Amino acid sequence: MRLRAGLLFASDSRTNAGVDHIATFRKMNLFEAPGERLVTLLTAGNLATTQSVVSLLRQRAAGNEPHLMNLSSMYDVAELVGRTLREVVSRDSEGNGQLNQGVDFGANFIVGGQIRGEEPRIFHVYPQGNFIEATEDTPYLQIGESKYGKPIIDRVIDYDSSLAEATKCALISFDSTIRSNLSVGLPIDMLLYKSDSFAPAVPHRITRDDPYFKTVSQGWGGGLKRVFEQLPDDDWFAAERTGQ
Amino acid sequence: MRLRAGLLFASDSRTNAGVDHIATFRKMNLFEAPGERLVTLLTAGNLATTQSVVSLLRQRAAGNEPHLMNLSSMYDVAELVGRTLREVVSRDSEGNGQLNQGVDFGANFIVGGQIRGEEPRIFHVYPQGNFIEATEDTPYLQIGESKYGKPIIDRVIDYDSSLAEATKCALISFDSTIRSNLSVGLPIDMLLYKSDSFAPAVPHRITRDDPYFKTVSQGWGGGLKRVFEQLPDDDWFAAERTGQ
What is one cellular component GO term in this UniProt entry (chains A, B) (predicted)? Predict the structure, then answer.
């Protein structure tokens, strides 16, 4: 989420290659120079692809070519991530012929952060390497299993929401998704960044036992049930029921 | 939904062939003989396919072969719908070569109802023609744009829920989906069936102005916001915020 107050990044940590091969991998990757830049990459899709892209970006950040640690705008950073993604997908998928066996080598990235001289920005980089940027009208981006958790964000978040509201909403959104879909699981990695702070990043890992996550999860579940129960039954339904 | 109390069917009515070709089509089809049987078909997917399947089933219901109005179990009805679906997809897609242009001819059906001598039953018929049946453990089935509206059903519905609760939940589920996805739209067609009633079906069409839909939609939206606001902020967030 890219709000006036700052940025919030959140990612789950479940990967699967079929239901009998489920594992935990961090999907949040940080590149930072406190005082000057923070770049965060969240990943979804083929794990071989996303790991390779992150490894190459990290390896090359020591080199002479333009890289994540010396580019002067987040736009250029998103373009570099897109280019590196295309490079890896081409390398891994081309010329294999039958070997590919219908495997999807694609991946999606959320690329966000702030570089001194710019506002904080976030981008969604598609498997094709092109990308879109979040704006004030649509201040959040999602990748991966995004649908279950979208309605609550649409209802409560706008550009002027606080980082505390964003945190609460992100946890509810993940909680709903985790309940409805096996491919999303705890722990959740979360990072808050206050606009123009350029402070060292302090990611927070939320496990099943995290007291705040428990409070939000139980409070939300109980609250929803109360709201549901307090809504009235329908008249036409009552007619239908007694009419038989 | 297949509950102890009976069945609830609900479908939206939006179809699209790209965002510049959006139309309204009823996706709920009834075959009934009050006192003896009710068979309801809900459809999702390629509209040419779903209309053809329904037309063929209706046309053949006057013939001598086994058909929807004389089969003696809902299982056989689901099997016939699956077979007819395979027939239409084969007819429309095979031998076209380049003409297909990547079009997906597939469709999904929910087939449900009650035939005298059986319990009420509902099935999900897949594009391949095979099918699954809802059970007491998982008393609901969804087709089409199902993810946005799934979390609320998972939270409040079980086999012993009342038909009034089911109605309320289905409207909330559709309301959330309609807010988050352009391909789902009002009106909603809804049908309630009380177990063993074999009463004439009275479908209810819910438009934007339906007073109960308005009550539920506004009450739910307002209630969610209240629950959200009442949940506390996090301690670690407060530390993060003041630490900078």
Answer: proteasome complex
Which tokens go with B182? 């352009």
- Domain-located, residue A229: no
Looking at the structure of chain A, the number of domains it has is: 1
CATH for A130: 3.60.20.10
Interface test with A, best of B154, B180, B181, B198 (most A CBs within 10 A): B180
Least confident window among A126-130, A175-179, B45-49, B56-60: A175-179
Q: Compute the distance between CA of residue A72 and CA of residue A69 in angstroms, rounded to an integer.
A: 9
Enclosing H/E stretch for A234: none
**What are the structure tokens assigned to B50, written together?**
């779903």
- Per residue in A31-64, pLDDT (tens digit) is 999 999 999 999 999 999 999 999 999 999 999 9
For B140-152, what is each residue's pLDDT tens digit?
Answer: 999 998 888 898 9
Structure tokens at B133: 């049946």
A17 in Cβ contact with A101 (< 8 Å):
no
ipTM of the complex: 0.84
Residue A228 domain flag: no
Instruction: Say whether residue A60 is in contact with chain B using an 8 A CB cutoff.
Output: no
Comparing CB atoms, the residue among A147, A197, A227 nearest residue B224 is A227
Contacts of B167 in chain A (CB under 8 A): 233-234, 237
Residue B232 falls inside a structural domain: no
At A108, phi and psi to the nearest 5? -120, 145
- Please report whether residue A243 resides in a domain: no
Hey, what amino acid is at A65? E
* Domain carrying residue B51: 6-208
Contact A156 B228 (CB under 8 A): yes
Q: Among A82-86, A232-236, B42-46, B152-156, whose mean pLDDT is lowest? A: A232-236
